[in-house]
Specification:
With 361 residues, the chain is an alpha/beta fold. It has 14 helices and twelve strands.
Length: 361
């Protein structure tokens, strides 16, 4: 298949480079002291993110559960052993209503898996220090969970401001930023106690969740390994592959990478605009990721949803982003696609439109 939808979990997320595949294979062929691997991963995560420490868990969703559990227990082994029974612990987790995104499950579900209860907040309660203080006094929360994602609904909040407001009231903050690994330094710099990433997205690693933050908060997450975290542990090959992916990111020429992405997208847009009935432009990522996507407006005589169905029905099937179909638009992400795959997409679109005779595909 051709994945022009981006690092979407049901489509296998991303392609791992040779260095990552080799690191995974080597780990599978031998033994390792997991604690030593985790220590090495922490050093790499700290360098890439600017955080004090880091750890690897099974996936980003597991990271949410374990981050919340860490703040509920403060790393106390006896409390960690009792979860998800929250008796005697602060178990309220504050979550902005707009940040209750669904990435295959709602964000509130991994929060509940820790034994916590999410309390949803709207704008004034978050942005007005006085109202936020009342919320804190009323709920005595374990933490505030924020989400950095293009899936958040409505105008987004200033994450740095929310973090500072929460921290001023003694409330620790977790930022779920699964696909935002390119922005990790920016997110850590907000002052959040923990930032959670997916190792599979643009980092192109194996299945893994990356957690970066203060040493105390990371240690509290690690303490869950003798509790509910046992079911969410990272394997030796996942940690080894993640370290390889982090090493690649540490040496990446970001300016050169961005320029190559821009060139690839520009060539793709030029070809799309030669297809009758299509008008393609570059659309910047709404969260500030360092690349744009191809936004393709489909002529009124054609049907974007039918084109998407036609792309998916072909050989190989082509998957695209569908969130703008209501506007008769298709969005395609080109970051991990090869030139020959982009050529195939253009050819297939041209064929589908040609088959319709221009009469309302």
């Amino acid at each position: 298949m051709i994945n022009a939808r981006g690092p979407f979990t049901p489509l296998g997320v991303s392609r791992s480079p040779a260095e990552v595949r080799e690191a995974v294979a080597e780990a599978l062929g031998g033994f390792a002291v997991i604690e030593d691997l985790q220590a090495a991963a922490s050093e790499h995560l700290a360098r890439v993110s600017g955080a004090e420490a880091g750890t690897i868990v099974h996936c980003a969703a597991a990271g949410i559960t374990l981050a919340v559990a860490g703040f509920m227990t403060s790393g106390d082994p006896a409390k960690a052993a009792r979860l998800p029974d929250p008796v005697g612990m602060r178990s309220i987790v504050l979550l902005p209503t707009r940040h209750e995104v669904n990435f295959g499950q709602p964000v509130s579900q991994p929060i509940r898996l820790a034994g916590a209860t999410p309390v949803f907040l709207d704008g004034p309660e978050l942005q007005d220090a006085g109202q936020f203080a009342q919320v804190v006094e009323r709920n005595r929360p374990a933490c505030l969970v924020l989400v950095s994602s293009r899936l958040t609904r409505g105008p987004d909040y200033d994450l740095r401001q929310l973090v500072q407001t929460a921290r001023s009231k003694g409330v620790p903050v977790v930022i779920d930023a699964a696909a935002q690994d390119f922005r990790i330094r920016e997110l850590v710099a907000t002052g959040a106690d923990l930032v959670i990433l997916s190792g599979q997205k643009y980092l192109q690693g194996p299945t893994a969740g990356l957690i970066a933050g203060t040493r105390a908060a990371v240690d509290a997450v690690r303490a869950q390994e003798k509790g509910i975290g046992r079911a969410m542990k990272a394997s030796k090959e996942a940690i080894a592959g993640t370290i390889a992916a982090l090493q690649i990111r540490e040496t990446l020429n970001m300016q050169g990478w961005r320029e190559e992405q821009d060139r690839k997208l520009a060539r793709f847009l030029n070809r799309l605009n030669k297809v009758s009935g299509l008008s393609a432009t570059a659309e910047a990522d709404p969260t500030g990721l360092p690349f744009s996507r191809a936004a393709v407006s489909v002529a009124p005589r054609l049907n974007a949803a039918a084109l998407v169905q036609g792309l998916r029905a072909g050989t190989p099937p082509v998957h695209v982003m569908e969130h703008q179909l209501g506007e008769n638009r298709i969005v395609l992400e080109t970051v991990e696609l090869m030139e020959r795959e982009l050529d195939m997409i253009v050819k297939r679109l041209s064929e589908l439109i040609g088959q319709s005779g221009g009469k309302g595909l």
